[in-house]
Structure formats: C-alpha cells, structure tokens
Design goal:
Blueprint lengths: L2 E7 L12 E6 L7 E10 L2 H8 L9 E2 L4 E8 L11 E4 L12 E5 L3 E3 L6 H5 L2 H14 L13 E5 L4 H12 L3 E6 L2 H9 L4 E4 L4 H8 L4 E6 L3 H11 E9 L18 E4 L4 H4 L7 H14 L7 E5 L4 H13 L5 E5 L3
Protein name: Zinc-type alcohol dehydrogenase-like protein
GO molecular function: oxidoreductase activity; RNA binding; zinc ion binding
Subcellular location: Cytoplasm
Length: 342
C-alpha cells in the first residue's frame, strides 16, 4: 500500500482550533473509468474551502480532504480516458462531491480538466480554475452575454466584489468581449487592482449604487454579477439594474430574496454554482474541459492574465490554515496559492 501526504480534517472546526486542519498520510488512489491521477504541484484557495471546513458536520471516521483548485501533472489515466495521457500538464477545479486536491496525488474526472496554460507556472495556473469556471459560466451561460464585441458595444456590467478571485477573472473576461465594466471596491488597493485588470470604473459597495453610477454617467446597468452578500446588496441591485436586465449571483442568501422588486422591470435573476455540472453529471459536463482550454489559449496569447496575488510554500497544514485565515478576514485580493509538498 503506497502512502501520500495530504492536508485534511476529522472535525469541522474554526480555523484557530489546532485540529481544524492537520497533516496526514493516506493511501494513494488509483484511477478507474474516466479518472486521471494527477501529481499535485500547486493548489489555489477559495471561500468554499472555509465553508466546507466550517460546515456543521459530525466527527468523521475518515479524513476529509479540501481543495478545489489544482495544477499538476497526469501520473496515470483510467481505462476510459481519451483526453489526456501521462505527462500532460493540467489545471482544474474538481468535484465538491469527491475528495479535494490538497494531497500529493488526486483523482479527477478528465471531462472537467483543462490543459495548463504553457506560459504560466504551476502556481500561476492553480490560481485560475474554480474562479475562471465560475466567472465564465456566470457571464456566458447564466447571463447569456454574447462573445461578440460588436454586440456588446455600449453594454454595461456591474461586478460586485470585483477584487476577489472570481471578480478578478470576470473583469478580464467581460472586457475581452467588449463590455463596459464597473467594479465595486472599498479600499485604495482593491480599486487599483481592479482598474489594472481592465475595469472602466469602480464604485464603493458600501454606498448607494445608483447615485454613484449616475455620477459616472450611467442611469443603470444592463447586467449585474454579484460575488458578495446577495441579500445585503439586493435592494441596490434591484434599483441599479436596467429594465429587462439580468442579475447573476454566486452567493447563497440566509434570508428569502424579494423577487417582486424585479417584476416591474422584467428583470431575470439566475444562480451560478460551478460544481453543478460535476455534481449532477450533466450531459454537458465536458464544457468545463473546453472552457478551461479556451481560457488557457487566451492566457498564452496575452489576452488574459493570472489572478495570483499571494504565494506560499510548501503545501502543509500550517500554510493552508494561514490561507484560510486570510480568506476569512475578507481582506484577500486576487488568489492565494500554495505550492509543492516537501
């Protein structure tokens, strides 16, 4: 039985508890069916890691491994694999219903894996998959924004929480297809980050959206992508969205949302959850493979760039805890990545 290193948990605990995340040695898995066995080189951190760690679950008899952003090298392939072979460099977000990627080796269905951008290091690539899939699906699947720049001429999108991981890539993707992008920020450093990614303007998400938009010359916006506190911003969004506009959110609400606020404007509201395709094994699950490859090509052509902003080494419980603390502080800009097992 071959063992491998991993970082995981047996109890769902606050991050300051010494047992919240621990270093482990567990059995190295073997690929079957359409699975790849990937040698993990770098992992990206996301709010979902903290949410799963904190979830009110009972004590586990088997360790739970977190981590839904990976870049690495294919070690072995299952008998039904056709997209990859050993030695291929890949990046992906994985499947929340399975063990995560905070381990030396990781199993993942090849249909949700992309070829790593050649121009990026493993750490730079690991910053991208989950947020890229979320941003891409939000813009082009859920909001049904066209990929044609001429069609989008004059179209506006407001991205709430534009300096975070998803906002950082969504800003770039929206600009790439010719949209006017307005991001919400609240600090000088986040405003600078968002403008450097290509946003046309920023507003403060602690103040009225409509009055700030009017100061910029916009009476409303055609699309809103909400990446932070849906319930908190609901009234502002309903007021700022244009008639027949569309709103997408990725953040669950603790309270029911008053959809009647959208009725008179005939506004559409839709959720985005990037694990939907893998969770339900949808027929179009392979679309995540295609979109990751498309984004990799755009990166290699200098049309998009990595959102990595903080790098830690090596991959161990201490560094994963540090990343969770930073995420939970709400002060993170861009993405946090941890690379290499000792």
């Amino acid at each position: 039985m071959t063992k491998m290193k991993a970082v995981g948990l047996y109890n769902h605990l606050p991050i300051d508890n010494q047992e919240s995340l621990v270093d482990l040695e567990i059995e190295k898995p073997r690929p079957t069916k359409q699975d790849l066995l990937v040698r993990v080189e770098a992992i990206g951190m996301n709010p979902v890691d903290s949410k799963v760690r904190e979830s009110n679950g009972e004590k586990l008899t088997e360790p739970k491994i977190l981590g839904w952003d990976v870049s690495g090298i294919v070690e072995e392939v299952g008998p039904e694999c056709t997209l990859f072979q050993p030695g291929d460099k890949v990046y992906y977000a994985g499947d929340i219903t399975r063990q995560g990627g905070n381990s030396e080796f990781h199993l993942v269905d090849e249909r949700i894996v992309g070829t790593k951008p050649e121009s990026l290091s493993f750490a730079e690539a690991a910053a991208l998959p989950l947020t890229t899939i979320t941003a891409y699906e939000s813009l082009f699947d859920r909001l049904a924004i066209s990929s044609d720049s001429d069609t989008n001429k004059g179209k506006t999108i407001l991205i709430i929480g534009a300096a975070g991981g998803v906002g950082s890539i969504a800003t770039q993707l929206a600009k790439k297809v010719g949209m006017t992008v307005i991001g919400t920020t609240s600090r000088p450093e986040t405003k600078e980050w968002v403008l450097n990614l290509g946003a046309d303007a920023t507003i403060n998400h602690y103040e009225s959206f409509t009055s700030q938009l009017q100061e910029l010359g916009f009476s409303s916006v055609d699309y809103i992508l909400c990446l932070n506190a849906t319930q908190k911003h609901w009234g502002n969004m309903a007021e700022a969205i244009a008639p027949q506009g569309k709103i997408c959110s990725i953040v669950e609400s603790d309270e029911p949302l008053d959809l009647t606020l959208l009725k008179n404007k005939s506004v559409s509201f839709v959720w985005e959850f990037m694990f939907t395709r893998s969770m339900f094994q949808t027929e179009d699950m392979i679309n995540q493979h295609y979109l990751l490859n498309e984004v990799a090509d755009s990166i290699d052509q200098n049309e998009l760039k990595t959102t990595l902003n903080k790098r830690l080494t090596p991959i161990n419980a201490e560094n994963v805890k540090a990343a969770h603390r930073l995420l939970e502080s709400g002060a993170a800009i861009g993405k946090i990545v941890i690379e290499k097992f000792n």
